[in-house]
Design brief:
alpha+beta, 8-stranded mixed sheet, 3-stranded antiparallel sheet, binds succinic acid
Amino acid sequence: MEVRTLDAAMGAEITGIDLRALSDDTFEKIRDAFLTHQVIAIRDQVLSPADQLAFSRRFGALEDQLNAHYTVPDFPEVLVLSNDVKDGKPVGLIDGGDFWHSDSSHRPFPSMATILYAVKNPNEGGDTEFANMHAAYEALPAAMKTRIATLKGIHAVSKLKNKRVTVSPRRPDGKDFYERQKSLPDQIWPLVRTHPATGRKTLYVSPRFTIGIEGMGEDEADTILDALFAHQIRPEFVYRHRWRDRDLVMWDNRSVIHQAAGGYVYPDTRTMYRTVVAGDRPF
Ligand code: SIN
């Protein structure tokens, strides 16, 4: 197994392994690379949904999928992200990841890791961007670090509660889906989170899910959040993954935000299988 750094911001590629036949020792090396590099791209994998599940489960319990009707038949924990259409119907979720976010920060136990397998890459575009939240936190001005040290963000899943995002017109059930999600409880997490495995501090906010600051008026909260949202995606923190066929990419939602960069148009199709490893309550 070889591990090679991909970018100054973060990220590593791993070659020379087959995820269908992993020894415990190699698995531990992958886990180490994941914690060190935050985003890992494991090249040249030929995986069925069952293979992806088996690999994902080695990291812990998996999340159920809120978008249950876009899962792989017989695999309720494998979500299909796709702009493809079959018999006039979307085969997967078309707007997954369309704004910067950390997966499931709106849940009571936010995600530890997301694992995405490239089933079909488009001919153009389809990149995923990742931003390093350890680096973003460390580069904050001292006054901002002090200002946010004890503040907590409000995280909401429904796009209809968030003025900074929009529901994609390409998603047929979008408005109804997000209307139903309005009743799900918001979650309150520290803006500065401590990574449970490494002890490093990380900025835990995102424009997709963070809609306010606990106990603070909207204007004051917006000033802080808008400054953090602009800061956290500065180019020096961002790694842009250009997918290769048979890539499996895994990222640490505790220290990384990400977004799907788009840039492809049907009939050029992109299909990904996505599994999500559940995590701990942020502190
Ligand atoms: C996601 O946000 O989980 C998906 C990102 C992508 O499709 O590139």
